[in-house]
Automatic annotation (TrEMBL), chains A, B, C, D:
It comes from the Bacteria. Belongs to the TMEM175 family. It catalyses: K(+)(in) = K(+)(out). This is TMEM175 family protein. It is found in: Membrane.
Length: 201, 201, 201, 201
């Protein structure tokens, strides 16, 4: 089985999730600038989720593109990941509408945590399938950032019980961490491309 | 007519259906953990529908990819299948919001049953078009799992009148059945790929 | 400019329109079978619109695939067509919620009529660009069914003022007319394919 | 990294944004023609936003297609652009529902302005990456229309405080300006295509 179908379907689902989240920002009925104030927290959680889902799209694309083939476990691990990402619109709305109260912030962390775990499982399934054939898949799968994210999310959930803003700070920290490009992977990808060109040419 | 256009359009529609279902989980206005309780049944039916639609995407992709060409009847059989799948968000919301009451569970079964029948009609149209030319299409079309699903859905509808949880158990049984990979089809696909490579190389 | 980008974008927009229409069927809060009755008219108009949008997708794909190139007027004629199709969810909801009252049925007809006109303009722009080079584009553009549809829609709008069901009957008549495959176009497409194979082979 | 993944994802997101905006036009419960009147302003802002997003899709596609490669800054500049475009459904709904009151018109201008700035940043990132290698990217990036749009949006925001209709007139002026095709870019694209054909043939 090729990776094309998985990639196209996942891209479609992620594109829809990132876009329908905006529907959680309910249009206020008043035209005053003040009427936007209650939406501000929803806007902030929208920004956080937009960045998070964009990071997942980016990482997902990287790891699937590095893969050469997929099997049934990979396919279901992928559906599992999409399931947790699909819950972002709900937790974004709940956290925003309740102005970052404890439980909504905790649930946001739980969904982020589970999405991170699902990504880890997907990576493991890909590594198992490719074995030592593909060093790239192994490199991406062993990726430290993914593991660190999951740990920060877990500590964020616990810290939310002290004060929800501490948890929130953890979630923003993860998003910021991903902005910094990873030279190791980029160089691996350039390497792979060079090898492929050599093989074809 | 090639299969590309049908595949891309169906993938798009199915990706949107699987994602907008999450909008049926209305964000509660309170920030307490208890306020999530009424959403739990909607969440459970969301999980069931997410898996169901993912299975349809998977099967649909398999059978269309095995096909070499389409005609007008196939195209309309496909639109017919997409129509029934498009009703999943509605029945998911109704069943969840009414905590698995009898009629909503029955209607969920009816839509699942009709989607199964529509898939069967699509398979029949593809077999008729390909005749004995393609053993793969015939193999997929004769697929036992599809027929068994339809029968279990029908019995689920009837059992819902005894107790809706019996019907629900039937629906979950079908979803579980599809998780177990089908070695027969996978081997056929590998075979086909090998033949295609031989023909090209 | 190639047609690929136009095709992919239009396919995406049409796939989303056909799917979000289902959101106009609001989930009833009661679990009785009777509570579905007020939704029945919305369901009927949903079925009509689903078929209509599916027909537009089919025709749009045919004519764009027959084209070899596009220019700015074609691109804007296409956006114009997508605009009118995008209003189907609104008129579907309005017509269904008001149980096929006069004005909603009239507006449904107006949007159907304008979409038909927009399709005609798109066809004209394609013919003007391709000139006599492509007999296929000319054949599709001269298509009688398109013109007849627009005339039936116009008469449907007028008949709605006598009784809305008369207008509705006209709209269903157009949808039914498109179900019957057009042997003339299919043979032209087969012909074109044969010529292309000859040129390549 | 190739441009294919960026193009497909952006096309998907933009197609969804242009389509879900129609959901901001809430279906009226009455069936009278008068009940459509309060929706008229929402319809007008829907038309404006539909054209605006269509223009962004068009321009985005042009500049990405002209690019040969992307890097991390381009990817994030693209996500940043999609973020501002994703706010169009919200500002469209707010402006329409409040009948073009001052603040909603100002916010519409701010989002339009920021989207214009984000497009400018994306163009700059692409130029920086391609350097003098690609004259086409440079030509598109230096594009005057983009800069003029941003200036008109800024003046539209200020004029909205005098009277919101003045601001609105500015926004419509920008949309109209983009309808006039740019012969300079079209000829460059034809040129590029010719060169590519020469290289391949």
């Amino acid at each position: 089985m090729g990776t094309g179908r998985l990639e196209a379907f996942s891209d479609g689902v992620i594109a829809i999730i990132i876009t329908i989240m905006v529907l959680e920002m309910k249009v206020p009925h008043s035209d005053s600038l003040v009427s936007l104030l209650p939406i501000l927290p929803v806007f902030i959680s929208y920004v956080l989720s937009f960045v998070n889902v964009a990071i997942y799209w980016n990482n997902h694309h990287h790891i699937i593109q590095a893969a050469e083939t997929i099997n049934a476990p990979v396919m279901w691990a992928n559906i599992h990941l999409l399931f947790w990402i699909s819950l972002f619109p709900f937790v974004t709305g709940w956290m925003g509408e309740n102005h970052f109260a404890t439980w909504p912030v905790v649930l946001y962390g739980v969904v982020s945590f589970m999405a991170g775990v699902a990504y880890y499982i997907l990576a493991k399934c890909l590594i198992k399938l490719h074995g030592k054939r593909s060093t790239l898949v192994a490199a991406l799968g062993r990726d430290k950032k993914g593991k660190i994210s999951v740990i920060i999310y877990a500590s964020g959930i616990l810290l939310s019980f002290v004060h929800p803003w501490l948890g929130l700070a953890m979630y923003f920290a993860v998003a910021t961490m991903w902005f910094i490009p990873d030279p190791r992977i980029e160089s691996k990808l350039v390497e792979k491309e060079a090898i492929q060109k050599q093989e074809n040419g």
